[in-house]
Amino acid sequence: MTEATFVLNPRWSSLDELVEAQRSAGGLRLDLGSGYFTPEGFVGLDNLSGRRAQGAVDDERGPDLLLDLDREALPFADGSVDEVRSSHFLEHIEHDRLGHVFDEVARVLRPGGEWLIVGPYGNSAEGMFPGHVVFLTEKWFRLNPVFQEHFEIVDERYTPSDDWDRLPRLLRRILPFDLARTYLFNVCKEMAITASRRGDGRT
Predict the structure, then answer these.
(1) How far apart are CA 44 and CA 31, in angstroms?
(2) Residue among 95, 113, 100, 96 at smallest CA distance from 30
(3) Cβ of 195: how many Cβ atoms within 10 Å?
(4) How do 65-66 and 7-8 pair as beta strands?
């Protein structure tokens, strides 16, 4: 592991204290790109570059570590993390930097540990919002060689858009959601991919 560069939130006296507190509470869990919305039981990591777009600031739920996730190493030991989540984060990372994120998550996540990725569906109005630099769908995750080298997709969930919900029921029966989201724009607004880290033989 290369030396990580990060700033620790003043509520922690050291990284060791933070890690020990998480382990005592049931395991080390990371939230990548947490902003000011770090979930209970997770370590929030972010550089807050998009903080002005987040609205209200809640310092109590702000990141535990400030670092550039697409450039810096995660400051955790190999295989030491039980779970990773990232919500509306990956679409803000330049395509050629996503491999670094995948490599680092795979390095710190224990074999069999899971990564929940939530984000706007690439083929939607939400996916096209300003600030998004990649447009991700399930096909991208299924075909990306770096992602597939490290992770196996174990679950996929999709949230219909409001536009889809407003379509006549008969039309939605004729053209089912799972088919429509693949071929039509703005049918699906969000997807959630759960991926399990492959065993040591694949990484």
Answers:
(1) 5
(2) 113
(3) 25
(4) antiparallel
